[in-house]
Structure formats: structure tokens, C-alpha cells
């Protein structure tokens, strides 16, 4: 049981490049989330999904897109990376909104 | 909008002593859930404890316990018999009941346990 995994763990992009972060969970959770963590800001919700095929915007969705084609996977895309998107990205999953969220190990993204 | 405030950016404690981390929140909801998460230097976010607002009894998990004061909108975390492995950033988080799935985090308290 791997829990929540994220790929890759580190990435460096140049401004304007695109990339996709992959999150996978093996706990059969319905809900999945993408957060970003910046110094002094805590974690902020980017997008979330309450089930396969559904997605919704969180607190800071601009510049990101997501897809949930399979229940166990939640992808986060950056179409045209900007230095402001330099951050640590966390994926999480849960049984439902009122239940605790389980987090992946994070992806450190640097945009130069 | 819900807000979560952790007023102590940094704290330190001696090994084996007790420390309390503060958290206050602002909400108009009556039903909600509160969490403390721990983030050690490894960066992994680990759930420490969970409290349901409709339960008056304070949650406890081994050396970790909370003091939940609903009227005061306060949710502090007490760590007893502090260990070196407790050194981490601690985040208080809030999620309302119902259909709102947004987990709101405080900005965190960096706890250092000294030998």
C-alpha cells in the first residue's frame, strides 16, 4: 500500500515551458486535491476533484489545469510556466470532504 | 470566508517537556472539522489529530492532545513528553461540514525540540 505518490519529486522549468505533475493513490479515495506551499503562506488549494471525471477550482487556480480521468489519478498541468509558479506542490486524497486528507511527498518545482 | 490563525511562527521546547501550540479560526459554520498536521524536514505532511466540532470531548492521540474551545474558536495542540522527532512545522487546518471541501490551513508554527 503506497498511499499517495507524486511524480516527479523535483523539476526545473524555463519560463513558458509546460509540464504535468502526476498524483496516484491506491486507497480508493473519491476526493483528490492539489495544493501549493510557499514560504510563510501555508498550503493553498489549487484544484480539487470529488470523483472520477469531475474537477473544481480551489483558491489559486489561475495558470493550472487538472484532469481526473481515472479514480486513482489526478493530474496537474502547467501550460506556460511562470517564475511565480515556483513552489512545492502537494497532492492529497480523502474519503470525503469531512475526512482527513492523506498527502503525497510533494514536488519541488523551480521556474527560471 | 474561513480563516485560520497560528500566532506563534516559531517555538522551542526542551526534550521531555510539554509545549502548547495555539490556533484560532473564524467561521460562521456550526458543523466543521479541525486538524493538526505535522511537516518534518522530510516535507511529508502527516496527520497528527482530528477534532469534530460537534464533539465536546477533546481528541487525544498518545502524547498529542487538543484543547478545543468552540465558543472561543480556539483549537490548541499540546505535546507532552516532547521528543526530538517532534521537531517539525505544525499546521492547524479547518474544513466546514456540508459540501464545502476546501481545507484551510494556518501559516504554521515551527517547533524545535532541543536535547
Detail the topology: elements first, then pairings.
The complex is a heterodimer of chains A (112) and B (115).
Chain A: E1 4-7, E2 10-13, E3 19-25, E4 31-38, E5 42-51, E6 54-57, E7 64-67, E8 73-78, E9 87-94, E10 102-103, E11 107-111
Parallel strand pairs in A: 2-11
Antiparallel strand pairs in A: 1-3, 3-8, 4-5, 4-9, 5-6, 7-8, 9-10, 9-11
Chain B: E1 3-5, E2 10-14, E3 19-21, E4 24-26, E5 32-39, E6 46-52, E7 60-61, E8 64-69, E9 74-79, E10 88-96, E11 104-105, E12 109-114
Parallel strand pairs in B: 2-12
Antiparallel strand pairs in B: 1-4, 3-9, 5-6, 5-10, 7-8, 8-9, 10-11, 10-12
Please supply descriptive tags for the structure shown above.
heterodimer; A: 112 residues; mainly beta; four-stranded antiparallel β-sheet; globular; B: 115 residues; six-stranded mixed β-sheet; 12 strands
Strand content of chain B: over 45%
**Individual helix count of chain A:** 0
Q: Helix-strand pattern of chain A, N to C?
A: EEEEEEEEEEE
User: What's the main sheet of chain A like?
Assistant: 7 strands, mixed
Percentage of residues in helical conformation of chain B: under 10%
Low-pLDDT segments of chain B: none
Q: Main β-sheet of chain B, in a few words?
A: 6 strands, mixed
Average predicted local confidence, pLDDT of chain A? 94
Beta-strand residue fraction of chain A:
over 45%
**Structural class computed from helices and strand pairing of chain B:** mainly beta
Q: Label the overall shape of chain B.
A: globular
**Assembly type:** heterodimer
Q: What share of the residues of chain A lie within helices?
A: under 10%
Distance between the termini of chain A: 36 Å
What's the end-to-end separation of chain B, in Å?
Answer: 41 Å
- What's the total helix number of chain B? 0
Q: What does the radius of gyration of chain A come to? A: 13 Å
**Unreliable parts of chain A:** none
Rounded radius of gyration of chain B (Å): 14 Å
- Give me the count of strands of chain A: 11
Amino acid at each position: 500500500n503506497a498511499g499517495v505518490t507524486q511524480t516527479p519529486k523535483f523539476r526545473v522549468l524555463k519560463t513558458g515551458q509546460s509540464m504535468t505533475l502526476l498524483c496516484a493513490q491506491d486507497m480508493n479515495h473519491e476526493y483528490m486535491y492539489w495544493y501549493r506551499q510557499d514560504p510563510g503562506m501555508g498550503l493553498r488549494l489549487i484544484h480539487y476533484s470529488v470523483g472520477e471525471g469531475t474537477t473544481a477550482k480551489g483558491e489559486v487556480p489561475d495558470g493550472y489545469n487538472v484532469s481526473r480521468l481515472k479514480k486513482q489519478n489526478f493530474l496537474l498541468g502547467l501550460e506556460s510556466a511562470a517564475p511565480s509558479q515556483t513552489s512545492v506542490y502537494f497532492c492529497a486524497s480523502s474519503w470525503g470532504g469531512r475526512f482527513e486528507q492523506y498527502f503525497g511527498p510533494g514536488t519541488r518545482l523551480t521556474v527560471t | 470566508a474561513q480563516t485560520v490563525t497560528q500566532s506563534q511562527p516559531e517555538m522551542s521546547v526542551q526534550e521531555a517537556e510539554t509545549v502548547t501550540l495555539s490556533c484560532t479560526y473564524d467561521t460562521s459554520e456550526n458543523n466543521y472539522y479541525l486538524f493538526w498536521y505535522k511537516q518534518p524536514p522530510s516535507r511529508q505532511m502527516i496527520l497528527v489529530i482530528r477534532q469534530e466540532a460537534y464533539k465536546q470531548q477533546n481528541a487525544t492521540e498518545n502524547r498529542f492532545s487538543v484543547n478545543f474551545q468552540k465558543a472561543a474558536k480556539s483549537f490548541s495542540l499540546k505535546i507532552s513528553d516532547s521528543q526530538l522527532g517532534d521537531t517539525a512545522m505544525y499546521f492547524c487546518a479547518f474544513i466546514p461540514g456540508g459540501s464545502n471541501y476546501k481545507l484551510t490551513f494556518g501559516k504554521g508554527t515551527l517547533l524545535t525540540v532541543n536535547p
